[in-house]
Fold:
Amino acid sequence: MEFFDSHAHLTGEGDYENLDEIIKRAKGANVTKIINICTDLGSLDRGLELSKKYDFVFAAAATTPHGADNDNDILFEDVKKAALNKKLIAIGETGLDYFYGFEKKEFQKLFFTNYLELAKETNLPLIIHARDAFEDIFKIADKVELKRAVLHCFTGTEKEAKKVLDRGWLISFSGIITFKNSSDLRDVLKNIPIESILIETDAPFLSPQSKRGQKNEPANVVETAEVIANIKNKSLEEIAKITFDNANKFFFS
Ligand SMILES: [Zn+2]
Structure:
């Protein structure tokens, strides 16, 4: 049995003291592929090094909506260069987040549009972050008819899930699905075909229910798979295999 953590932040500044240990634990838990999401210059530099060292850790990069506090995206040219040099497996996470309302919508939209176009240009899949912003996400993405995209850390409604699936995109579930108070989200999952599902940790954030309050890490993606298996009436082996195959197809085809 193998698991694919489709979204973890391994190289954020000061996030992990001993990354080799974290990766060893992931391997020990049969997490055999990890997408490492880089969101600034430092994490991208370290992320490219990490991918050199471990051939099963793949780098993706973009400025998150939380980094869009003016119109100057200082990461963009480096992401573009890395993408064109085939050092990235995906563009992201990028998107729109209107939940806190700290960053101006116009800057978020500008950044999101630029990364969308880069994904299109480089033929790489796009990892989208969307919170309270689905309508604008679809409005912008539909202009470029994006085929390969995943809505990461999905916490939306059934309606929103349907719109994601209508576009042929995937939906990724994090440890949030394991939380005691996530019964609405578990209901949404019931109606999402397993062929459209990825699993992720979003480490170091969002530890699953049994580890809440601790720093999250890729090994914990197994708990998310267990909860999905329960909801879908499948064995853990089946969910591991299906989500692994989904992610392989999505990132490597
Ligand atoms: Zn993330």
Remarks:
- The chain has one domain: 3-252.
